[in-house]
Amino acid sequence: MTGLVLAIFDLLSPLLRLAGVDYPRFRAILEVKLTLDGRRQGFMLQRADGKQSKAAFALALGVNAVFGLFVAATMLLCGSALVGLTIELSFVMTMVGMMLIADYSSVLLDTTDNQILQPRPVSSRTILAARLAHIIAYLSLLTFSLAAGAFVFGTFKFGIVFVPCFAAALLLALLLVVAVVNVVYLLAMRMVDGEKLRDMILYFQIAMTVLVTASYQIMPHLIDMAALKTLDISNAAWVYAYPPTWFAGAVDFALGQHGPAQRWLALLGLLGPAAAVLLVALLAPIFRTALARLDVDSASTARRGAGRVSPAWGETFARRLCRRPIERAAFAFLWSLVGRDRQFKLRVYPLAVFGLLVGAAILFQKRASNSFSLDALRQSKSYLFLLYVNCMMLPSALLQFRYSDRYEAAWLYGFLPLPGPGDVLVAALKILLVRFVSPAYALAAIVVLALWGPRVLPDILVAYCATLFLMTLAALCIGRRLPFSEKLGVIESSGRAAFLLVMLLIPAALGGSHFLLAQMLPPAILALAPLLLAGSWGAMTAYRATTWRHLQLKGSEQTQR
Fold this sequence. Notes:
With 561 residues, the chain is mainly α.
């Protein structure tokens, strides 16, 4: 792929030189970046043996194409090409912008190559152009995979002339998205320091994960497909301020619709990306200075040490929840690691709302065919479904606690004079309960209370006890791994994965028992709470009794196939 990308940029070299880029140096930098990418292993590209799967990127493109297929199908339902293309390009540009921030922010804000390039006679404009070209090369493939369905349906509806017109519109849209994200990053770097900026990116990544999941669950129920056949937006004033409509209008103009709206939108579709790219070129020196300041901010933060990321909350919870000295020390230590590990937060925090979103979507879909009534919903016991579906999602966080991209540091566990791993495992479980499980359940409980009122408080209490029981049982059965001690991408053996699927049936059994008891004998519901708490205490006690030999047996079991 490196040769093809370089050949394409060779064709664009006159434009790059016109923008003030030193093309020979630009080409050399880009070639090195692409070569290093071919040797780098990513989380999604690893197999269980740690080797990189060559087909993983192609698989990711295939998944994007499947997701985009459902959105592209709306083009067949729209009576106007402008409407259909606006919907399609809105989806593509939103997804590309999110992927740029979520997956390529580390490339865009990478400062390691500055140590090599800044002392040499390479202009800041050339360095920035190489960085943007590096990102655009991969985003182009992702963009065209998202729009693969649109090419098929558009060709079927408008003819073969649609293909080059839509491809040009996608390239212009990609340039605009990359340029706008660069300007946003520059403004953010001018206002906050490096660590705060990385935290902002992390929060955006989490929000993006939740937003995409929610959109695929909820949006199909909100779109009136019949109205798309007669919808006309060419006379609306907002289309001139909405970038996806610019490129949709340009394609519509190329397909033969030469109305006033199409002419102005086509002009905006050409001038908008050009102006954005020119602005990024003019801001290149400022961007280079901001990246240098980002390096200084990160270094000064590292010198300040753990005081910033070791809040007093960790020590407070350690004193309140841990009676054994080793467990208390492990709790405070792991609390700080969790606060620092952005990848762990990105893997775990979205799970806090996945259960609630999935439960709400299923509940909404079940009642979509009937006349939906909020009063009828409040008279039902559907809140139990929401609480226990959320409960089913939470044990997934337990599996993520063992993984880290710096798993080599786990030698510390063997170096310390610990009589056994039980106190460390229990401390990690308590952190998960305090920092993740309880807030996630509180979110679901707030929604249930808002809809059903205080009368369901006993059910909420019992469901929380069931959640604690499920978490401790899952820790005992599938969670006997030291925290942050295994490599990302290591896959469980087939037997362990099957056992995890069996564990998903336990919340269903608990929820069914809760529902039957609520139907037959409501006053006896609270009697379940002490039974579930006793079960949690027993499972926690057995979990604390884990030995080093038990961990070795588990590790050897995992490596056997």
